[in-house]
Amino acid sequence: MAPKKEDEVLRYDRMVEKALRGVVREAVREVIKDGLAGEHHFYITFLTDHAGVQIPDYLRERYPGEMTIVLQYQFYDLDVDDEKMCVTLSFNNVPERLVIPLPAITIFADPSVNFALQFQPLEGPAEGDGGDKPKGKKTKADDSKDEGASSKTGEVVSLDQFRKK
C-alpha cells in the first residue's frame, strides 16, 4: 500500500477543532433561547483580520489582529448559525453590529465556571495576509477615563490567564 499524500490524510486535528467550535455554537444557541443564567458570561476572542469578520473600521484599527468581546450585561440581537455568530454591542454608547465567523474565534471562555477553549485557525491566513504574524496583547477597550464609557458596555479584555504558556 502506497503512503498517503498530505491531502489524503484524515485531519483529526481539524475535526476536533470543528467539533469544539460546535460547543461555542451550542452555548450561544442556549443563551439565545434562555438568556445567561446566574453568573455565566462569555469572553470571545477572534481574529479581526479573518475573512468574513464584519466590524466597524475604528474597532479594526484599534484592535488589529485580535479582539475580545464580553457577552454579559448589554448585548442585543444575538444570533448564530453553522458558520457565524452575530451580536450588537455598545461601544462608547454607540451600538455596533459584529459578524464573527466561527473559524475566526480563537478563544471562548466562561470564567464563571472556569471553562475555556483555545482554538487554532481552521482556515489559512485572511485575505491579503502575508502568513503568520505575532498577535498583540489586548487590554480593556472601555478605558473609561479616556472615553467616558459605561462599565457595562462592550469591552475588550486580556485573556492571558486562559492562554497556554
Description:
The protein is of the alpha+beta class. The chain is built from three helices and seven strands; from the N terminus they run H-E-H-E-E-E-E-E-E-H. The chain has helices spanning 12-34, 57-62, 144-147; strands spanning 42-47, 66-71, 75-80, 84-91, 94-101, 105-110, 115-118. The strands form two sheets. Strands 2-1-6-7 form a four-stranded antiparallel β-sheet, with helices on one face. The protein starts with 11 loop residues before the first helix and ends in an 18-residue tail after the last helix. Residues 124-156 have low confidence and may be disordered.
**Spans with pLDDT under 50 lasting ≥5 residues?**
124-156
> In sequence order, what are the helices and strands, one letter per element?
HEHEEEEEEH
Which architecture per CATH?
Answer: Roll
Q: Biggest sheet, open or closed, and with what strands and sense? A: 4 strands, antiparallel
Numbering strands along the chain, what is their spatial order in the largest sheet?
2-1-6-7
- For CATH, the homologous superfamily is named as SspB-like
- Kindly identify the CATH topology: SH3 type barrels
- pLDDT averaged residue by residue: 76
The first-level CATH class is given as Mainly Beta
Summed up, the helix count is 3
Beta-strand residue fraction: 25-35%
Instruction: Estimate the global geometry from the Cα principal axes.
Output: globular
The number of domains is: 1
The N- to C-terminal Cα distance equals 41 Å
Rounded to an integer in angstroms, the radius of gyration calculated over CA atoms is 17 Å
